[in-house]
Design brief:
Strand order of the largest sheet: 2-1-3-12-4
Structural class: alpha/beta
CATH architecture of the largest domain: 3-Layer(aba) Sandwich
CATH class of the largest domain: Alpha Beta
Shape: globular
Strand content: 15-25%
Number of strands: 12
């Protein structure tokens, strides 16, 4: 379409975005230029710092911070990744930590203070277990995506050349996040991650799966990841783009969900979302209504943890695609 705006789009390649990126699902009135960024976290920084894309996947906390500081893009109620966050947090056996409250006075490793995994887990520890997060020393070994973010005084940087994994192994940390959010890798995201074993450190929260299922049943909170943001100037010039994008994401997800229900696919994500469906129903819900509790919790946690100066109204943080 000659009149369709050509939009530079950076989103991850997942089962539920594949049909969009390979052209089976079209974006009405849009000429998409998909840019492949691996790992997709690299696109977050390029968008935050250089406004490189018209449409971009972005960590929700990165977006929340940037939007609170006046960033010229706004999110759709589309979240491309989901998981719970009671698990993925381990301790050294000799740390004396038995509950989240015991983290007070300890050193904990997390890639960056504003990493979404860290924000969700801290929020749970604070609101469910009574942790005073200000009494924990949060040790980071990477930059924040939003360089203007003012960090609390209890956030310190690991010594240059030292990874969180090494610090945990050497007893310099008492606890840490697993995987790419913490001790499960070394190296910066832009320099290339090297995967590291978690050395069989024990999880802090026991019976994680049941605890998470009970929490969801009680609160309705299903942690969001992978926000999709659109430049506000694009929406001002082409108001139809918000609905076109939203409808396209819904359509490509529907193809993926049909595949999951048919038992097709055996990737780690396929298995994850099949398992989550037994707890939450739709494992990838889009739209404001189905994500209200999760969005509300994310904004509350961001305010509690000093990541945003004020709590934004939903209409300020998200565009209504209908």
């Amino acid at each position: 379409m000659a009149s369709a705006p050509r939009l530079k789009i950076a989103i991850g390649t997942y089962g539920h975005t594949a049909a969009l990126k390979d052209g089976r699902v079209k974006i009405a009135g849009v000429d998409p230029d998909f840019v492949e960024v691996v790992p997709i976290i690299g696109a977050f920084r390029r968008m935050v710092r250089d406004l490189e894309f018209d449409v971009c996947e972005m960590a929700p906390t990165t977006y929340m911070i940037a939007r609170g500081l006046g960033a010229p893009y706004i999110a759709l109620p589309v979240f491309l990744m989901r998981r719970f966050h009671h698990g993925g947090f381990v301790t050294r056996p000799d740390s004396g930590i038995r509950t989240p409250k015991d983290l007070e006075g300890k050193k904990v490793g997390v890639r960056a203070y504003s990493v979404t995994t860290g924000v969700w887990t801290r929020g749970i520890f604070v609101n469910e277990y009574g942790l005073d997060s200000s009494k924990v020393t949060w040790v980071v070994d990477d930059e924040e995506h939003v360089t203007a973010l003012k960090l609390p005084p209890n956030v310190v940087h690991a010594p240059d050349g030292t990874s969180l994994a090494d610090m945990m192994d050497n007893g310099e940390l008492d606890a840490g996040f697993t995987g790419n959010a913490g001790i499960g890798r070394s190296g910066s995201p832009t320099g290339g991650w090297q995967q590291r074993s978690n050395q069989n450190y024990p999880e802090l929260i026991p019976h994680v799966a049941q605890t998470e299922a009970d929490w969801f049943k009680r609160t309705g909170i299903y942690p969001i990841h992978g926000s999709v943001v659109v430049k506000t100037e694009v929406l001002e010039k082409h108001p139809h783009v918000a609905k076109s994008l939203f409808d396209a994401f819904v359509a490509t997800k529907a193809i993926y969900m049909d595949q999951l229900k048919a038992g097709k696919g055996d990737t780690a994500d396929d298995r994850k979302y099949r398992g989550l469906a037994s707890i939450v129903g739709d494992p990838l819900p889009y739209g404001m209504k189905d994500n209200a509790a999760s969005i509300d919790a994310m904004l509350n946690y961001g305010l509690q943890q000093g990541l945003i100066p004020r709590r934004m109204a939903l209409g300020e943080a998200f565009v209504n695609p209908t």
